[in-house]
Amino acid sequence: MTMTITTDTRTGHDRIGETDAASPQPTPARDAGAAPARRTRVVVIQTQAENAGAQEISRLVGAGLAARGYDVHNLFFFRQSRSFDEPAQTTYCAARRPGDPLSFLRFLGALYARIRTLRPDVVLTFQHYGNAIGGIAARLASPAPVIANQVSARLTMPAWLRGVDRIMGQLGVFETITVNSHDMLRDYSRYPDGYRRRLQHVPHGFDQKHATMSKADARRQFGLRPDAVILGSAARLHPLKQLDAAIRVLAQRPDWRLALAGQGPDEARLRELADGLGVSDRITFIGEISPEQVANFLACLDVFVFPSLAETFGLAAVEAAHAGVPVVANDLPVLREVLSAQGEPAALFVDAADPAAMANAIARALDDDALRAQLRRAGDGLKSRYAVDAMVDEYVRIIEGATQPAARRQGAGRDR
């Protein structure tokens, strides 16, 4: 069977496989004299609670749906970060990451029980473990349709989990599977039709970040040198983010410094690498920052480096480019797709595994005024390409399409 991609003429977003004759519209309000309509209840299931890209997207989707009148509840598997700014109506299924079989079983029981208690009309799951574990728990605990959000690159998923995800999609555990780039659509093009026809392309929206202080004040706040050339990145400290590439660049340029905002399991290795290269005195590990701090962190930087090995979108790089910070990114097809506006690239792309090439690209971003102006122009165009309202509108359309066929059955079950 040939894979087809159709474009929604209203939104410009793409859907792979079969499409309905008409897009469903939000359920109309009742007459003034009738009993008030019960709000559609949406349960958002995420993995760990931390300040990272996938959590930012689920936060924006949940807030947008709540603003449109949906009753949104957030279930996190556990809290990873103390600085995480939790949305309203948030529940944690475990105090920390389950570390043994018994605590994992307790976590599963808490997740199942909470879904049963909430009686959702629709469930949105995020990230690969959120989709697999949350999707199965939701289907066991509730008849509500499950909308899975593929916000994790397949390279980040173990082979067995990719197999589980494939089976769940084929069997219809997921009503819909959203992806956030055309590159991801191509990535799933060889999957069976039962999986592919559930795929819908919904580009991420992003919250525009505006600094509240000058560059000098921002550097003072984050403890950075006021007169230095500062490269920076905001990312989870994980091997797939390939932040060692940014550290290796410092060995070639003794006049540059690096600021890394984020936390994660790769921090010890990165520190050891910096010590071995003799550049540890020029690296500042900022730690995790909140979404509200991102703009001021970006204001500190002369160049944003994004050497990641695998992405589905690259939200941090999009935010940096829109903020007017020159971006030097690893040359991935998905980043070339996402980091562009009206045919103009919003970043410099380079093989991040080549320290000399990486250093040369950074030097160009620092020294070429015309290039920086072009990158700022393209970066500014990202705000219209990735509007939060457009993203939320797509989720409204998907939710209404998923819930309307089951509305009578769901309503009857809730009223008993």
UniProtKB/TrEMBL annotation:
Stretches the record annotates as Disordered: 1-38
Top-rank taxon, per record: Bacteria
One Pfam family here: Glyco_transf_4
Bias-annotated ranges (Low complexity): 28-37
InterPro entries (alphabetical): Glyco_trans_1 (IPR001296), Glyco_trans_4-like_N (IPR028098)
Molecular function terms from GO: glycosyltransferase activity
The protein, known as: Glycosyl transferase, group 1
Organism lineage: Bacteria, Pseudomonadati, Pseudomonadota, Alphaproteobacteria, Hyphomicrobiales
